[in-house]
Amino acid sequence: MSPTNPAPAASDFIRDLVRADNEQGTFAGRVQTRFPPEPNGYLHIGHAKAICIDFGVAEEFDGVCTLRFDDTNPDTEDTEYVDAIIADVAWLGFELAVPVRYASDYFEQLYVWAEHLVERGLAYVDDQDGDMISVQRGGYGMPGVESPNRDRTADVNADLFRRMRAGEFADGTHVLRAKIDMQHENMQMRDPVLYRIRRQHHHRTGDSWVLYPTYDWAHGQSDAIEGVTHSLCTLEFDSHRALYDWCLDHLPLPGDRPRQTEFARLELTHTVTSKRRLATLVADGVVDGWDDPRLPTLRGLRRRGYPASAIREFCAFIGVSRTNSRHQIELLESFVRTELNQTSLRRMAVLRPLRLVITNWPDNADGTALVELFEVSNNPENPADGVRQVAFSKTLYIERDDFMVEAPPKYFRLTPGSEVRLRGAYFVRCTGFTLGDDGSGDVVEVQCTYDPDSRGGTAADGRKVKSTMHWVSADHALDATVALYYRLFTAEVPGEATGEAFDDLNSESRELLSGCKVEPALGATEAGQVVQFERLGYFAHDPRQPLLFHRTVGLRDEWANIQKRA
RNA sequence: UGGGGAAUGGUGUAAUUGGCAACACAGCAGUUUCUGGUACUGUUAUUCAGGGUUCGAGUCCUUGUUCCCCAACCA
Question: Which bases of chain B are contacted by protein, using any atom under 7 A from a CB?
Fold first, then answer.
């Protein structure tokens, strides 16, 4: 299903680059990419961009893309995340052409290559503590200081390194460092740490290693082992590229030398994409879990009814550049709406019910109110979705703000004396209303008469009404709970501008409405299905609760628009 | 403080590489409409600043300004 947004000509310097490589025969026309998440959290909308680029580029140039877990730090990693990430990539719509890879598969090879460096005097064991190493590294514009251990002989280093692996030293006491240049202007090149000792159970290698490679020692080599040609990552790794190349330069590598290229990560307004902060929200119980519909995790978005295809279209549209930018959530939502407008079923639901009584509605012979069934289209955009029967009777519910006692100009809905259409049913004219006896002035009931000659919603005499309203039959309606969300996580609740800064981890972005009245067909909605509540927006049926609906996106800013005109 | 990256309407992305600054989102106005939605049409608004080269500069040169990233035994 493709949205009606015209295919954009988004800039994509990476595709241009790959194309140029192919023309020049750089990798003999071969294209291989990889998506390398660390399994320490769940994928979010930011990752979706990277996935679309990594898998998309491979697909477009008849290459392959590997899903590789960068599991070099056992402290925070877990199979829970591995499984979730695999599932989320699949949900987004990308198939794995090759089995899942793990950096931990290469631990032995990486160790051997480290020995190779040690033998050539290109790496040394340092037994200073972390603070000292950090201080010696120097600062921006300030030279570093060489470690006193920097000039140990290759034999001594080889021996120490073996003993590190053998578990002779305590955690944090020894590291292996590359011997590069402590005066280098790029801080990453000031003798970076390649291995650290950490007695921590690894989710795949168990306790067989006490030694773990750092990202910098694992990443480029993993790319090389797998045959990656284009190693695409985000801008913050820019300064690591020199080290990436240095490692590859000093190793006897098979095949092509992979090349790293960086692009700007995705940022969205109203959205938190820091894995650390998301983890905090989950850990602190601010949200229900990683799939809380307020979160921009792929699971959260899925539960909230975002179609994977809309996310992919969005990523294709925004393109790839090296400019840091923060896209508006409205753009993403417009892709969601475009998609959902084609695919979602229409249903009638009343979020804030107001009773409407048709005073001239006929009774049955036994004195009970007559019930009439109407056929209503499931989706006018797609007649193939068919029709359903909806019950209509004397007492109905309409939306509370679809009636006003004193209506402003240009208010087209129900007001004393006015006539409107009840969708798919009859024209009704308002003849009166009842105020509650609590003195608040709130209307508790509206009385109308109906025009029997307007059955099905078309008047026999051809007269028109300015408004069509949704309704549910009081005797048939189900009670539901509807969760309204204001953007993704960072709230912009009407009347309570919280801004975009994410200083307050407890900011609430959800309003739960209970006592909503929905038509019976919604009770049978499949879990996870997205429906359009007429005029209100798109809502996803919660997969775990029978009559709980999450608002996916609204139809524009429906209430804001209405109130502005009212 | 050193190095690297980036600056185009309100937002984001383009511009055949020196040749009429466009596309989308948001906004506004209108047409259609069994929902004030959808669809369609119209419309507002843009090259960070100064200087230079040129018939011609978003694009080239120069000076400046602003923003982002880098000093984990994280990735």
Answer: 1-8, 10-15, 23-27, 34-40, 67-75
Q: Which residues contact A63 (CB under 8 A, 6 or more apart)?
A: A30, A31, A32, A33, A57, A229
In angstroms, rounded to a whole number, what is the distance separating the alpha carbons of residues A139 and A143? 7
Residue A6 (CA) to nucleotide B40 (C1'), in angstroms, measures 15
What tens digit of pLDDT does each residue of A238-281 get? 999 999 999 999 999 988 899 999 999 999 988 888 888 888 88
Of the ranges A13-22, A245-254, A303-312, A482-491, which one carries the lowest mean pLDDT score? A482-491
- If one counts every other C-beta atom within 10 angstroms of the C-beta of residue A499, the result is 12
Q: What is the nearest nucleotide to A454, using C1' and CA?
A: B34
Which residues of A are tagged catalytic? Answer: 38, 265, 275
| A386 vs A496, more confident | A386
> Which of residues 265-294 of A have CB within 7 Å of strand B?
none
| A243: CB partners within 8 A, 6+ apart | A178, A188, A189, A192, A216
Residue A414 CA to residue A357 CA, distance in Å, equals: 13
List strand residue ranges (DSSP E) for A240-302, in order.
259-263, 267-268
User: C1' nearest to CA of A320: which nucleotide?
Assistant: B13
Q: Which amino acid is at A284?
A: D
